Amino acid sequence: MDPMSTDFRDLDRRAADFYLTFVAQVKPADLALATPCADWTLHGLLRHQVSQDEGFAAAARGDGGDLQVWRNGSLGDDPHAAARASLDLVTGAFAEEGVPDRPFLMPEVADRPVPGRMAVSFHFVDLVVHAWDVAATLGLPWEPSAEMLEASLAVAALVPTDDATRGPGLAFDRTVPAPEDVSPGDRLLTLLGRSPSWVPSQYRWR
Which Pfam families does this one have (predicted)? Predict the structure, then answer.
C-alpha cells in the first residue's frame, strides 16, 4: 500500500470510530491519568487529538498555515462529545471534492505543503495509535483490524527518523527497538515511539 497513491478517507472514518470506542469509556476521574505519551495526561492526550482534528480540517480547506488552528482544541465538560464533534468536523472536511489532490499546510509536521493523500494518511495513523494510547491508559485491549494495521505500517514506515523529527516534544518519539518476529501491532507501536510493554501506573503494582 502506497500512501502517496491511496485514498485513506474511508480508512480514516473507520479509525475515527475505532478511536471513539475507547474515548467513550473514559470517566472524569481517568482524565488525570498518565499516558504512554510522557508529556500528556489522558486529558492532554484527548485535547491534543481534538486540536489535531481541527487543524487537519482547517488544512483541508486551505487554512492550515496558522499554528494556532492546531492547538486550540477544548474538551469542555464532555470529552467524548468533544472528540466526536472534532472528528465529525475533520471527516466532513476530508469528504470535500478534490481533497486527496489538495496541498495541506501543516506547520507542526512540515515546512512545505503536504499532498492531501499523505496528510489524510497521517491523520489516520494518528487515530489508530492514539487509540492504543487511550486503551493502554485504561487497561483495555486494543485490536485494530488487519487492514488498519497494514495501512498504518505503510504510513509509519515513511516517518523520518532523524533528530529533527523524533524526540521529546516533537511529533513522534524515537523508534523503540523491537525483535524481528514482533506482531504487526507491536511493530507499529515501536515504529512510532511506543513501548508495547507500557502499563499504566494504577496497574503496575497489582
Answer: MDMPI_N (PF11716)
> Rounded to an integer, what distance in angstroms lies between the CA atom of residue 108 and that of residue 89?
19
The secondary element (H helix, E strand) that includes residue 105 is none
Averaged pLDDT for residues 176-197? 93
pLDDT exceeds cutoff 80 at 111: yes
User: One-letter amino acid identity for 144?
Assistant: P
Closest CA to 64 of 24, 119, 16, 139: 119
pLDDT at residue 86, rounded to an integer: 98
Q: Please state, in angstroms and rounded to a whole number, the distance separating the CA atoms of residues 159 and 174.
A: 11
Per the structure, the count of domains in the chain is: 1
Residue in 176, 179, 181, 187 with CA at minimum distance from that of residue 152: 187
The answer to whether 172 touches 165, Cβ cutoff 8 Å, is yes
Domain that holds residue 31: 9-204
CA angle at residue 15 from 10 to 16, to 5 degrees? 100
Q: For residue 172, list its beta bridge partners.
A: 166
The rounded distance, in Å, linking the Cα atoms of 106 and 54 is: 12
Q: What is the CATH number of the domain that holds 24?
A: 1.20.120.450
Residue 203, pLDDT score: 55
β-bridge partners, 104: 114
* Model confidence at 169: pLDDT above 80: no
Q: Which pLDDT belongs to residue 205? A: 40
DSSP code, position 101: G
